[in-house]
Structure prediction request, 180 residues.
Amino acid sequence: MDNIEYTFTPAEIEQIQAHVAKYPDRRSAVMPALWIAQEKFGWLSLDAIKLVAATIDIPYAHVYGVASFYTMYFKKKVPKHLIEICTCFSCLEVGGPEMMKYLKEYIEADENGVSADGKIWVREAECLGACDTAPMCQITNRRYLHNLTEEKIRDMVEKLRNDKEIPYERIPLNDQSILD
Ligand code: FES
Prediction:
């Protein structure tokens, strides 16, 4: 049982109502509203899901159904930073699994993929749509890191450990060097 007060600020409610207003059916606002809740609370407890349902004014069961379907919504308390390494198709062929193994060793992950310092967790991902820059990973549902190497992994982990920003990588479409 945590001591968090599950409420939205007036600004957050306004943000959610703006999403509701965009759609003919208010249930369509569930995903962005869940996202706002997860950003705020770090994960989606049953209380957070109930809060979303009450704020949109739709049945709790519907919100729960959406939250439980998608892996990007965290249904248990998780470390702050998530690294998802793609081990699908293209990434599998060019070192995705090896990058995963190296990352787990580097952060001394336990059997759940959580680092020894509790700040990072890792898991495998299915294709994330960046096959041309395989092997790659996604960081906490947002930015991608492309053409992974052990050095890049170490750099990423150290930045996350110190809560430093990881810049977006821009790989020009005509940059042939990535194909060398
Ligand atoms: S196979 Fe890894 S991004 Fe597509």
Summary: The longest helix spans residues 10-22.
